[in-house]
Design goal:
Elements: E1 2-8, H1 14-25, E2 28-31, H2 32-40, H3 44-52, H4 58-71, E3 77-80, H5 86-98, E4 102-110, H6 113-121, E5 123-126, E6 132-134, E7 152-153, H7 160-183, E8 187-191, H8 196-210
Parallel strand pairs: 1-3, 1-4, 2-3, 4-8
Antiparallel strand pairs: 5-6, 5-7
The chain binds zinc ion.
Length: about 210
Protein backbone atom coordinates (compact mmCIF):
# COMPACT_ATOMS: atom_id res chain seq x y z
CA UNK A 1 0.00 0.00 0.00
CA UNK A 2 0.98 3.63 -0.30
CA UNK A 3 1.41 6.52 2.06
CA UNK A 4 1.33 10.21 1.49
CA UNK A 5 2.96 12.48 3.98
CA UNK A 6 1.47 15.89 4.56
CA UNK A 7 3.76 18.55 6.00
CA UNK A 8 2.41 22.01 6.58
CA UNK A 9 3.91 25.33 7.51
CA UNK A 10 2.12 26.74 10.58
CA UNK A 11 -1.20 28.26 9.54
CA UNK A 12 -0.91 27.02 5.96
CA UNK A 13 -4.27 25.26 6.11
CA UNK A 14 -3.46 21.56 6.06
CA UNK A 15 -7.07 20.74 6.98
CA UNK A 16 -8.27 21.84 3.53
CA UNK A 17 -5.67 19.64 1.83
CA UNK A 18 -6.18 16.53 3.96
CA UNK A 19 -9.96 16.67 3.58
CA UNK A 20 -9.63 16.92 -0.21
CA UNK A 21 -7.25 13.93 -0.34
CA UNK A 22 -9.64 11.93 1.79
CA UNK A 23 -12.81 12.85 -0.12
CA UNK A 24 -11.50 12.73 -3.68
CA UNK A 25 -8.61 10.29 -3.55
CA UNK A 26 -9.93 7.99 -0.79
CA UNK A 27 -6.86 8.13 1.40
CA UNK A 28 -7.34 7.22 5.03
CA UNK A 29 -6.52 10.35 6.98
CA UNK A 30 -4.29 9.75 10.01
CA UNK A 31 -3.85 12.82 12.15
CA UNK A 32 -1.53 12.25 15.09
CA UNK A 33 -3.28 15.01 17.04
CA UNK A 34 -6.65 13.30 16.60
CA UNK A 35 -5.23 9.87 17.49
CA UNK A 36 -3.78 11.23 20.72
CA UNK A 37 -6.98 13.03 21.68
CA UNK A 38 -8.93 9.82 21.02
CA UNK A 39 -6.49 7.78 23.11
CA UNK A 40 -6.68 10.34 25.93
CA UNK A 41 -10.36 9.54 26.42
CA UNK A 42 -9.45 6.16 27.91
CA UNK A 43 -5.88 6.81 29.06
CA UNK A 44 -5.46 9.12 32.01
CA UNK A 45 -1.68 9.51 31.67
CA UNK A 46 -1.97 10.77 28.09
CA UNK A 47 -4.95 12.92 29.02
CA UNK A 48 -2.87 14.65 31.72
CA UNK A 49 0.05 15.25 29.35
CA UNK A 50 -2.21 16.77 26.68
CA UNK A 51 -3.99 18.95 29.23
CA UNK A 52 -0.66 20.35 30.40
CA UNK A 53 0.26 21.04 26.77
CA UNK A 54 3.34 18.84 27.03
CA UNK A 55 4.72 16.51 24.36
CA UNK A 56 3.68 12.88 24.44
CA UNK A 57 6.56 10.41 24.56
CA UNK A 58 7.69 9.25 21.09
CA UNK A 59 7.27 5.61 22.10
CA UNK A 60 3.51 6.08 22.59
CA UNK A 61 3.26 7.91 19.29
CA UNK A 62 5.02 5.07 17.44
CA UNK A 63 2.72 2.49 19.06
CA UNK A 64 -0.38 4.41 17.99
CA UNK A 65 1.00 4.65 14.49
CA UNK A 66 1.77 0.96 14.24
CA UNK A 67 -1.66 0.03 15.63
CA UNK A 68 -3.51 2.02 13.02
CA UNK A 69 -1.40 0.58 10.19
CA UNK A 70 -1.80 -2.97 11.44
CA UNK A 71 -5.56 -2.61 11.83
CA UNK A 72 -6.11 -1.15 8.35
CA UNK A 73 -4.14 -3.40 6.00
CA UNK A 74 -5.95 -2.36 2.80
CA UNK A 75 -5.78 1.39 3.14
CA UNK A 76 -3.63 4.04 1.55
CA UNK A 77 -2.76 6.59 4.21
CA UNK A 78 -2.23 10.27 4.41
CA UNK A 79 -0.20 11.04 7.53
CA UNK A 80 -0.49 14.45 9.06
CA UNK A 81 1.23 16.01 12.07
CA UNK A 82 3.80 13.23 12.25
CA UNK A 83 6.72 12.88 11.69
CA UNK A 84 7.67 16.45 12.48
CA UNK A 85 11.44 16.05 12.49
CA UNK A 86 14.20 13.88 11.03
CA UNK A 87 14.70 11.88 14.24
CA UNK A 88 11.07 10.74 14.20
CA UNK A 89 11.19 10.08 10.49
CA UNK A 90 13.75 7.32 10.89
CA UNK A 91 11.41 5.23 13.06
CA UNK A 92 8.44 6.22 10.91
CA UNK A 93 10.13 4.82 7.79
CA UNK A 94 11.03 1.61 9.63
CA UNK A 95 7.41 1.04 10.67
CA UNK A 96 6.15 1.65 7.12
CA UNK A 97 8.81 -0.71 5.77
CA UNK A 98 7.70 -3.45 8.11
CA UNK A 99 4.19 -3.33 6.60
CA UNK A 100 5.38 -2.87 2.99
CA UNK A 101 4.01 0.63 2.74
CA UNK A 102 5.76 2.95 0.32
CA UNK A 103 5.87 6.71 0.74
CA UNK A 104 5.17 7.76 -2.82
CA UNK A 105 4.70 11.48 -2.32
CA UNK A 106 5.22 14.13 0.27
CA UNK A 107 3.09 17.25 0.06
CA UNK A 108 4.46 20.39 1.62
CA UNK A 109 1.71 22.97 2.11
CA UNK A 110 3.32 26.38 2.00
CA UNK A 111 1.92 29.83 2.52
CA UNK A 112 3.18 33.41 2.63
CA UNK A 113 3.92 34.16 6.26
CA UNK A 114 1.86 37.36 6.30
CA UNK A 115 -1.21 35.51 5.01
CA UNK A 116 -0.75 32.76 7.60
CA UNK A 117 -0.53 35.39 10.34
CA UNK A 118 -3.79 36.98 9.18
CA UNK A 119 -5.48 33.59 9.08
CA UNK A 120 -4.30 32.65 12.55
CA UNK A 121 -4.51 35.90 14.45
CA UNK A 122 -7.79 36.86 12.77
CA UNK A 123 -9.46 33.60 13.77
CA UNK A 124 -12.43 33.90 16.10
CA UNK A 125 -14.21 30.89 17.56
CA UNK A 126 -17.82 30.73 18.70
CA UNK A 127 -17.84 30.12 22.45
CA UNK A 128 -21.09 28.21 22.03
CA UNK A 129 -20.90 26.00 18.90
CA UNK A 130 -17.13 26.20 17.99
CA UNK A 131 -17.76 27.53 14.48
CA UNK A 132 -14.71 29.53 13.34
CA UNK A 133 -14.59 32.87 11.54
CA UNK A 134 -11.90 35.27 10.43
CA UNK A 135 -12.14 38.94 11.25
CA UNK A 136 -10.12 39.85 8.13
CA UNK A 137 -11.93 37.63 5.63
CA UNK A 138 -15.49 37.20 6.94
CA UNK A 139 -18.19 39.77 7.52
CA UNK A 140 -18.68 39.72 11.26
CA UNK A 141 -21.45 41.65 12.96
CA UNK A 142 -21.07 42.62 16.63
CA UNK A 143 -18.71 39.68 17.33
CA UNK A 144 -21.65 37.27 17.26
CA UNK A 145 -21.89 33.82 15.64
CA UNK A 146 -24.00 33.81 12.48
CA UNK A 147 -25.30 30.33 13.23
CA UNK A 148 -26.21 30.43 16.91
CA UNK A 149 -25.64 34.03 18.01
CA UNK A 150 -22.97 33.00 20.54
CA UNK A 151 -20.05 35.29 21.46
CA UNK A 152 -16.94 35.02 19.29
CA UNK A 153 -13.67 34.67 21.20
CA UNK A 154 -9.98 34.45 20.36
CA UNK A 155 -8.33 31.21 21.45
CA UNK A 156 -4.92 31.23 23.14
CA UNK A 157 -3.23 29.27 20.33
CA UNK A 158 -4.32 31.96 17.89
CA UNK A 159 -2.14 34.72 19.35
CA UNK A 160 0.75 36.17 17.35
CA UNK A 161 3.33 35.28 20.02
CA UNK A 162 2.24 31.62 19.94
CA UNK A 163 2.33 31.65 16.16
CA UNK A 164 5.89 32.97 16.12
CA UNK A 165 7.07 30.22 18.48
CA UNK A 166 5.44 27.57 16.29
CA UNK A 167 6.91 29.15 13.15
CA UNK A 168 10.45 29.19 14.55
CA UNK A 169 10.14 25.57 15.69
CA UNK A 170 8.94 24.66 12.22
CA UNK A 171 11.92 26.27 10.49
CA UNK A 172 14.34 24.73 12.97
CA UNK A 173 12.92 21.18 13.26
CA UNK A 174 10.63 20.46 10.33
CA UNK A 175 12.35 22.19 7.40
CA UNK A 176 15.22 19.63 7.50
CA UNK A 177 12.56 16.95 6.98
CA UNK A 178 11.12 18.86 4.02
CA UNK A 179 14.61 19.10 2.52
CA UNK A 180 15.23 15.40 3.13
CA UNK A 181 12.22 14.46 0.99
CA UNK A 182 13.11 17.07 -1.59
CA UNK A 183 16.45 15.37 -2.09
CA UNK A 184 14.64 12.04 -2.51
CA UNK A 185 12.56 13.66 -5.30
CA UNK A 186 9.32 12.92 -3.47
CA UNK A 187 8.40 16.46 -2.55
CA UNK A 188 5.56 18.45 -4.08
CA UNK A 189 4.85 21.95 -2.84
CA UNK A 190 1.29 23.23 -2.75
CA UNK A 191 0.84 26.97 -2.22
CA UNK A 192 -2.26 27.76 -0.22
CA UNK A 193 -2.13 31.53 -0.73
CA UNK A 194 -5.18 31.95 -2.95
CA UNK A 195 -8.61 30.38 -3.31
CA UNK A 196 -9.51 26.86 -2.21
CA UNK A 197 -10.16 25.99 -5.88
CA UNK A 198 -6.63 27.07 -6.76
CA UNK A 199 -5.26 24.78 -4.03
CA UNK A 200 -7.43 21.86 -5.24
CA UNK A 201 -6.12 22.35 -8.81
CA UNK A 202 -2.53 22.13 -7.61
CA UNK A 203 -3.32 18.88 -5.77
CA UNK A 204 -5.02 17.39 -8.85
CA UNK A 205 -1.99 18.27 -10.92
CA UNK A 206 0.47 16.57 -8.62
CA UNK A 207 -1.74 13.51 -8.14
CA UNK A 208 -1.98 13.15 -11.95
CA UNK A 209 1.78 13.24 -12.32
CA UNK A 210 2.00 10.22 -10.09
CA UNK A 211 -0.24 8.06 -12.28
CA UNK A 212 2.10 7.99 -15.26
ZN1 LIG B 1 -22.08 29.55 17.22
Amino acid sequence: MKALLLISAPGAGKGVVSKYLKDKYKYMHVSMGNLLREKAKTDKTIDDILKKGEFVDNKIVYELLEDIIKNNPNENFVFEGFPRMLEQNEVFEKILNKYDIIIDRVIYVDIKKEIAIKRITGRLTCSNCNETYNKYFDNINDNKCKICGGDLIKRNDDKLSTYNIRYDAFIDKTMPLVNYYKEKNLLYTVFNNESVENTYNQIDELMDKEMK
